Amino acid sequence: LLSLVGEVLIDPGDIVFVAAPTYFVFLGTLNGLGARVISIPSDERGMQTELLENELQKIEAAGELSKVKLIYLVSYYENPTGISLSAERRQQAVEIAQRWSKSRRIFILEDAAYRELRYDGPELPSVWSFDPDRQTVILANTFSKSFSPGFRVGWGIVPTELVGPLNDRKGNEDFGSSNFCQHLLATMFGEGLYQDHVQLLRDTYCSKRDAMLAAAENWFSEISGVNWVHPHGGLYVWMSLPETLETGFDSPLFRRAAEVDKVMYVPGEVCYAGDPAGRPKNQMRLSFGTQDAEGIELGMQRLSQAVRAVLD
Ligand SMILES: Cc1ncc(COP(=O)(O)O)c(C=O)c1O
Predict the structure, then answer these.
(1) How far from 5 is each of 34, 98, 180, 301, CA to CA, in Å?
(2) Alpha-carbon distance 24 to 11, whole Å?
(3) What would the pLDDT profile of 255-305 be if each residue is shown by its tens digit?
(4) Cβ of 304 less than 6 Å from ligand 1
(5) What's the pLDDT tens digit per position in 62-80?
(6) Cα–Cα distance between 64 and 294 in angstroms, integer?
(7) Cβ(77)–Cβ(232) below 8 Å
(8) What residues have CB less than 8 Å from 83, skipping those under 6 apart?
């Protein structure tokens, strides 16, 4: 649905707002469509909506407001940071989108992929729930996280004006979603098995999250300048290293980690839009989805070894 929305709404040069950092695969989609991606910095409550408003003012002053098409928000336990947008900012984001829909409608694309993977912390209302007219927010969700990785069946709720264009495009894009997968899901729902399955995943991932946070404490707390986010859900821990320590694919750290210590991470810089020179280079996304607790502990030990080796 994310790429379909992009295809339907975005022409080259159109403006899309994203949080910085954000889901790098969708950044790739937007780049492929020729969108002008504007990053709005995030803090521990998600995208800073007041900065979004400032950007919109600048764009209007430049006479380019009609090019703004979309605000992309990963509302729950964002990939890569694990951070959720606060309830207050959810509401503000909808108000901002509506207030600035002057020459044309500015949509919010709410990507709620990790919503069901909640381990603790508050249960937040969706961004979509702050849009009672149902004309601003496109809610996109997937069963790839809550049912099975790589399942590639999702669902969405979209404003009426987009239903036709999205349906028309869907068949051309993927020749239809997998019939087998949809039957499997229908059976899970029909037999009342889905919620139990989600609970099983939650319990499993929660233990893995705890294992990764404990291992981070164990292996990284004594390395000065290292800090990390404690996520309430999702699959990732976002770690920042001392500013001088680069994590990119070509960095000494990445090479050492992959070749000597046999451990992998996603370099933080791929999660930012815009000029590569201006991106933070000292962050990494650590995933606790696949490994068991023992593997997580070993991986974190090895990664800390690589960090210490490059720092020395
Ligand atoms: C934030 C986010 N949105 C969407 C997806 C895509 O899920 P699907 O497998 O349904 O394409 C992912 C998968 O990693 C994701 O992290």
Answers:
(1) 14, 18, 24, 41
(2) 20
(3) 999 999 999 999 999 999 989 999 999 999 999 999 999 999 999 999 999
(4) no
(5) 999 999 999 999 999 999 9
(6) 53
(7) yes
(8) 42, 44, 45, 46, 77, 229, 231, 238
How many Å lie between the centroid of ligand 1 and the Cα of residue 239?
Answer: 21
Rounded to whole angstroms, how far apart are CA atoms 38 and 128? 22
Any ligand 1 atom below 6 A from CB of 136? no
| pLDDT at site 30 | 98
Using omega within 30 degrees of 0 as the cis cutoff, is the peptide bond preceding 125 cis? no
Is residue 227 within 8 Å of 240, Cβ to Cβ?
yes
Query: Treating both helix axes as pointing N-terminal to C-terminal, what angle do 160-174 and 2-9 enclose, rounded to 10 degrees?
Result: 110
Both tokens of residue 104? Answer: 């044309």
CA of 74 to the centre of ligand 1 (A): 10
User: Element (H or E) spanning 36, and its range?
Assistant: strand 36-43
Write down the pTM of the prediction: 0.97
Question: CB–CB of 138/156 below 8 Å?
Answer: yes
User: Considering only CA atoms, which residue is closest to atom 5 of ligand 1?
Assistant: 113
DSSP three-state, residue 15: strand
